Amino acid sequence: MAEAYIVTTARTAGGRRNGALAGWHPADMGGEVINALIDRSGIDPAAVDDVIVGCVTQAGEQAFAFGRNCVMASNLPQSVPAVTIDRQCGSSQQAVQFAAQAVMSGTQDVVIAMGVESMTRVPMFSNVKFHMQEGLGEGPFSDRIAERFGTRDFSQFKGAEMIAHKYGFDRETLDRFALESHHRAAQAAEAGAFDAEIVPLAIEGGLHTRDEGIRADATLDSIGSVRLLEEGGMITAANASQICDGAAGVLVVGEAALKKHGLTPVARIVNLTVTAGDPVIMLEEPIAGTRRALERAGMKIDDIDLYEVNEAFAPIPLAWLKELNADPAKLNVNGGAIALGHPLGASGAKLMTTLVHALHASGRKYGLQTMCEGGGIANVTIVEAL
């Protein structure tokens, strides 16, 4: 079977809500990441066959063929097409998988897979709330869906609480995991681990080059003082991912493109998996997805050198570790979304960027990335550093 390779990756540093990147139009953020991928690879911009852009909240400034708008805001020629996709939090991880499938099939040779989300300028759920406020329909869940699953309240927050209870975690365990995420991210940032990943963006007073959500001074007491999101629950804003503005991208090519354009790959894509399970508890599907991915790749969890498991909520990676008997020392070694932020549709490409760089920095070989996603879906991607 034909191979798919990652040639280069890039991401912006995360911006907090109403923070450093609030002044950036999301299409322009996407355009800057595209430009960085072209500049870093040295490829002819006209050689790009397609641009696949993950974005969750496709409304306002992220509406109207948003992927195409990112291309128009970049230095790519107008001849390069684009498409916008939504697989919830896994949107840009799915973009990477679609790009890999395109080059593996031979239908395309050079594809940019990326994601963009400005959660400041296009708030989460704003695309749903507008229709509800205007009285345009009943919302995304029909009577038929409600009858089948016994609810219309498909909530990731409730799913996270359900997982915490199912796997026996208490509030302190979740808070300690959150604290570790901040500590790892702060250490990585201080050591310059993210420097080669980040595309500097101009902001008032200089350039934005550091993830804004990292709290180097976080303590268990400060995290523990944050109020619960639900009375009697365990989830707080401190042990869940941070709202974040950002963009990230990956340049994916086939073997013919490597030779034709004189490119040097940084990783080979080993396995592409997507699975779906219970849409109510919703967020534990990375466990089943990982098992399937490993089986398809003929690998065991111990064969994987580094894992990136999105920290949407602390119980998710903790349950994943517990069920797969995975090594915590290999998990999110440079921190995760609790510290670095979760720019929804951009997070898949963001995590892939960090994973590939971390594999090279540590001299390790295999990495696995997985995301929990709305509706009980999960993407899993295994890569080999080259």
How much β-strand is present in the residues?
Answer: 15-25%
CATH class annotation of the domain at 270-385: Alpha Beta
What Rg do the Cα atoms give? Answer: 20 Å
Question: What is the typical, i.e. mean, pLDDT?
Answer: 96
Distance between the termini: 18 Å
Task: Report the CATH architecture of the domain at 270-385.
Answer: 3-Layer(aba) Sandwich
Give the CATH superfamily of the domain at 270-385: Thiolase/Chalcone synthase
- Count of alpha/pi helices: 13
Spans with pLDDT under 50 lasting ≥5 residues? none
Which outline best applies? globular
What do you see in this structure?
The chain has 386 residues and is α+β, with helices and mostly antiparallel strands. The chain has a domain of 116 residues: Thiolase/Chalcone synthase (Peroxisomal Thiolase, Chain A, domain 1, 3-Layer(aba) Sandwich). It has 13 helices and twelve strands. The strands form two sheets. Strands 1, 2, 3, 4, 5, 8, 9, 10, 11 and 12 form a ten-stranded mixed beta sheet that branches. A two-stranded antiparallel ribbon has the order 6-7. α1 crosses α2 and α3 crosses α13. It is globular and about 60 Å long. The mean pLDDT is 96. GO terms for molecular function: acetyl-CoA C-acyltransferase activity. Belongs to the thiolase-like superfamily. Thiolase family. Its EC number is 2.3.1.16.
What does the secondary structure layout of this molecule look like, with pairings?
Elements: E1 4-11, E2 15-16, H1 26-41, E3 50-54, H2 66-72, E4 82-85, H3 91-105, E5 110-118, H4 126-133, H5 143-149, H6 156-166, H7 171-190, E6 201-203, E7 206-208, H8 220-224, E8 244-254, H9 255-261, E9 267-276, H10 285-297, E10 306-309, H11 315-324, H12 337-340, H13 347-362, E11 366-373, E12 377-385
